[in-house]
Amino acid sequence: MNSVDRLFTTDARDFSDRYIGYVTSVLAKIDRTEVARFIETLLDARGRDATIFFIGNGGSASSASHFANDLAIGTNDYEKPFRVISLSDNTAILTAIGNDFGFDDVFSRQLRVLGRKGDVLVAISVSGNSPNLVKAMEFAKSTGIKTVALTAVDGGKMRMMADEGIHVPTEPKEYGPAEDAHLVLNHLVGAYLMRIVRAS
After folding, report:
1. What is the per-residue pLDDT for 169?
2. In sequence order, what DSSP letters do the residues of 34-77 get, joined into one string?
3. What pLDDT was estimated at residue 200?
4. Given this model, what pLDDT does residue 89 score?
5. Contact by Cβ (8 Å): 51, 120
């Protein structure tokens, strides 16, 4: 039984209070140094005109798209933008690779075409063990692409193999609180970078 199961009550107002309280406690445990390092990595990539790739499955695919939107467009800088792509977004490419080569290759094969040494790959996963994300990170590391893992639970394989990352400490199968925290990180990072760009 995870924390959300333990918090459950049939009183919706009471459950709302408990859920929000729990997510707040999860956010409080995130290492701020990891957040700052991630921001530095994104700023460094921008300074070098490197491409930042985001990947994820399911809810984390949505988070990958959201991150890409908020960094590439939300920072409102078109003279020196953050060059950001979510590799989770192109249905034709995802289904072509999945059908012809297997779902485990949907991100690594895109990186083979688009990625260059010095780029950055940000992989988002609650479990940290998704085979297609792990395979993409392995390819990235073999070609000089920096890897960042945004994880939860115990971080899985991705946390161990990434060059850096931000870990959200949750219990197994707590997808809601973990993905909530990843989106808070998205808005935190985006809000900071928007203002840094504006001030520069």
Report:
1. 95
2. HHHHHHHHHHHHHHTT-EEEEEESTHHHHHHHHHHHHHHTTT--
3. 79
4. 96
5. yes
Residue type (1 letter), 37: R
H or E stretch covering 179: helix 175-199
Q: Are 5 and 173 in contact (CB under 8 A)?
A: no
Give the domain ranges of the chain. Answer: 31-199
Q: Note the pLDDT tens digit of each residue in 78-104.
A: 889 999 999 999 999 999 999 999 999
The residues, ordered by sequence, that sit 6+ positions from 119 with a Cβ below 8 Å of its Cβ are 45, 50, 51, 52, 53, 140, 145, 146
The reported pTM is 0.96
| CATH of region 31-199, choose from 3.90.320.10, 3.30.565.60, 3.40.50.10490, 3.20.20.70 | 3.40.50.10490
| Lookup result for tokens 């063990």 | 129
